[in-house]
Design a protein that fits this description.
This protein is α/β, with parallel strands linked by helices and about 325 residues long. The chain is about 35% helix and about 15% strand. It has 10 helices and 13 strands. The strands form 4 sheets. It has a 7-stranded parallel β-sheet, with helices on both faces. Strands 7-10 form a two-stranded parallel sheet. Strand 4, helix 3 and strand 5 form a beta-alpha-beta unit. Helix 2 packs across helix 3, helix 3 packs parallel to helix 4 and helix 7 crosses helix 10. The chain is globular, with a radius of gyration of 20 Å. The structure holds NADP nicotinamide-adenine-dinucleotide phosphate. The site of NADP nicotinamide-adenine-dinucleotide phosphate has 23 residues, from helix 1.
């Protein structure tokens, strides 16, 4: 691996999207600082680079000095921090989606970071969920503190460690009936995690991407019901689908929210009321030079393990 003498700092690099970004930055020869609340969580990433190339850094996300220490001497900064639900007093949308990105962007400006990429989410300009409203407010906060920031808005992201397809595949393993919330009509445009990381690289390399917003979607636009259909075909486990109204789903979600990692919250049900597809007028993956990968190329590579008898169940031996 040839080092390029540049330093990148990734916030949320331990997460599903962040670790793919760290991998690609390492492949391109960057020294990658992984800012995280718990450095031990980032140790596994050391294996994706040469010795000393990946540097986990403890960061207190409420302390500007700690953030400044993390981004110091970085050429590029990428923010992949985000949460899907609130919990207790510390896990709050306002802090994670608005105050923290605002602080990171303002520190980046002060210390002279060259390029900043912020991971947002698709459909947030239409949805009334708290997740969406705070993500949108976070974008504005980033833009006002670092006007040249590139904002990426992905639809649901798929890939080996995703929480979306893996969660439904896991549910289909044990539950004979699965819910079609709001009739399963909500549309998604799932995008491959490798393409999202490629978009980050393109945004960092391409001057024209500065100050721009890109909406990232894959080649397939599918309804929630079709998501289940894809899942059934790749896992070989067909389940009954039952229509439930948004109102009833919210009642169910109220109880699920008591769990430490709720599979569904009232706010997520609210998100399902609006489609999650790239706007016709928006700039997208192709504008960044990235060709979107089809779901059916990637899904079988990890959903096969949910087949009865596992991945090699159909392999004939002898
Ligand atoms: N996955 C998707 O389908 C999807 C779709 C659209 C948009 N996005 C956006 O893409 C970004 C990355 O998503 P992801 O799926 O990679 O998320 P993820 O796997 O949950 O990781 C997010 C990161 O956020 C940090 N984090 C978690 N809880 C936190 C808290 N309470 N306070 C502060 N930081 C916290 C963690 O970093 P440390 O523990 O290392 O500190 C974690 O690595 C997010 O902004 C998300 O909104 C994701």
């Amino acid at each position: 691996m040839t080092m390029n003498n540049k330093v990148a700092c990734v916030f949320g690099g331990t997460g599903f999207v962040g670790r793919q970004v760290v991998r690609e930055l390492a492949e391109k020869g960057f020294v990658v600082k992984v800012a995280t609340r718990v450095p031990e969580r980032a140790y596994f990433l050391k294996l994706v680079g040469a010795v000393g190339q990946i540097v986990p850094l403890q960061c207190d996300y409420r302390d500007e000095k700690s953030i400044a220490a993390a981004v110091k001497d970085s050429d590029f900064v990428v923010n992949c921090i985000g949460i899907l639900f609130e919990k207790g007093k510390t896990r709050k949308f306002q802090h994670v989606h608005v105050d923290l990105p605002a602080m990171i962007a303002s520190v980046c400006k002060k210390v002279g970071v060259k390029k900043f990429v912020h991971m947002s989410a698709l459909g947030i300009d239409k949805s009334t969920s708290k997740y969406a409203k705070t993500k949108l407010e976070g974008e504005a906060a980033v833009q006002s503190n670092f006007s040249a920031a590139t904002i990426l808005r992905p639809s649901i992201i798929f890939g080996e460690d995703d929480s979306f397809f893996n969660m439904f595949a896991e549910m289909a393993r044990y539950i004979p009936v699965l819910p079609l919330i709001g009739g399963g009509k909500t549309k998604f445009q799932p995008v491959y995690v490798g393409d999202v990381a490629d978009a980050v690289m393109a945004a960092l390399e391409n001057k024209a991407a500065q100050g721009q917003v890109y909406e990232l979607g894959g080649p397939d636009i599918i309804s929630f019901k079709e998501v289940y259909e894809r899942l059934f075909s790749h896992t070989g486990r067909r389940r009954c689908l039952v229509n439930i109204s948004f109102g009833f789903a919210k009642v169910e979600a109220t109880f699920m929210s008591l769990l430490p990692y709720p599979p569904l919250t009232r706010d997520q049900v609210e998100s399902l009321k609006t489609d999650n597809v790239v706007a016709k007028t928006a700039q997208g993956l192709e504008d960044l030079g990235v060709t979107p990968t089809a779901m059916d190329v990637i899904l079988p590579t990890y959903l096969e393990s949910y087949r009865r008898g596992g991945r090699f169940a159909d392999v004939k031996t002898g």
